């Protein structure tokens, strides 16, 4: 296993990604199989009934929506302070993955909220702040796609990511700062987990499976982005080294004369 500092070299990172991806994908598939089996065999909640099983998708998606944005923020600092290309690649490739998990969080939350609250949506502090997080993700993706100069786009996207990080503690502590319908933390509390062990185990298993899946997706996306940059660089180099067509024509015309 290489040291983390050595992975800052793009070539070493590519070699590490090639070796790590099959293991991450296999581990993720195994954990998902175990997690889903535990989720479907776990007892139903005495209040929520079968609808509690939505939690096994909703909670990991919510956790990843915050975790991935935190990864983007750390990458944004690396891109702005050290201008490291891998930090830019990490920041760019994490954004669409985080956007998908945030959208999944909102969808599963609505499906869970309908039988529990009697409505698909309320302008609850937690729900509203997560919706804002989704809009921030979409805004950052729009920056990457709207600005043609990728160096300039990386700088603007990094600044937007740092500003948007203000919303992360709002999402996290919204249920404590405001009186909301959304329940508070049930897993990591000072008094210990508030969930029955037979429900907590599949939840933790699914959370780890989702996290490993994210790591695999992020590594694969970073590898593909590095390859695209190398191909673009080679195409530009080939275009600059190729003699102009007009010059070739004039040389051939002089030779025939």
Overview of the molecule:
By secondary structure, this protein is mainly alpha-helical. It has one domain (10-181, 195-229). Helices cover 77% and strands 0% of the residues. It has helices at 10-41, 55-81, 85-117, 125-146, 150-164, 167-177, 197-241, 245-256. The longest helix is centred in the C-terminal third of the chain and has 45 residues, at 197-241. The protein starts with 9 loop residues before the first helix and ends with a helix.
Topology at a glance:
Elements: H1 10-41, H2 55-81, H3 85-117, H4 125-146, H5 150-164, H6 167-177, H7 197-241, H8 245-256
Helix pairs in contact: 1-7, 2-3, 2-5, 2-7, 3-4, 3-7, 4-5, 4-6
- Summarize model confidence as the mean pLDDT: 86
Report the strand count: 0
User: Rg, please?
Assistant: 24 Å
Structural class of the secondary structure composition? Answer: mainly alpha
Helical percent range?
over 70%
List keywords for this structure.
257 residues, mainly alpha, globular
């Amino acid at each position: 296993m290489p040291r983390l500092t050595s992975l800052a070299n793009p070539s070493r990172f590519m070699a590490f990604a090639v070796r790590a991806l099959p293991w991450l994908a296999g581990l993720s598939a195994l954990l998902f199989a175990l997690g889903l089996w535990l989720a479907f065999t776990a007892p139903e909640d005495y209040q929520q009934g079968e609808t509690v099983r939505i939690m096994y998708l909703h909670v990991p998606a919510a956790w990843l929506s915050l975790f991935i944005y935190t990864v983007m923020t750390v990458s944004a600092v690396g891109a702005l302070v050290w201008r490291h290309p891998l930090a830019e690649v990490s920041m760019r490739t994490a954004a669409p993955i985080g956007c998908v998990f945030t959208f999944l969080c909102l969808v599963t939350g609505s499906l869970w909220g309908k039988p529990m609250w009697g409505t698909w949506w309320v302008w609850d502090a937690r729900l509203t702040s997560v919706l804002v997080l989704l809009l921030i993700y979409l805004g950052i993706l729009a920056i990457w796609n709207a600005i043609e100069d990728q160096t300039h786009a990386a700088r603007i996207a990094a600044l937007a990511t740092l500003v948007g990080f203000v919303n992360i503690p709002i999402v996290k502590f919204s249920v404590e700062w405001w009186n909301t319908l959304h329940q508070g933390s049930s897993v990591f509390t000072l008094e210990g987990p508030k969930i029955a062990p037979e429900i907590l185990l599949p939840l933790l298993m699914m959370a780890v499976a989702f996290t490993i899946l994210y790591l695999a997706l992020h590594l694969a996306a970073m590898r593909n982005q590095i390859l695209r940059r190398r191909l673009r660089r080679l195409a530009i180099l080939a275009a600059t080294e190729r003699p102009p067509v007009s010059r070739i024509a004039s040389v051939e015309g002089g030779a025939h004369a």
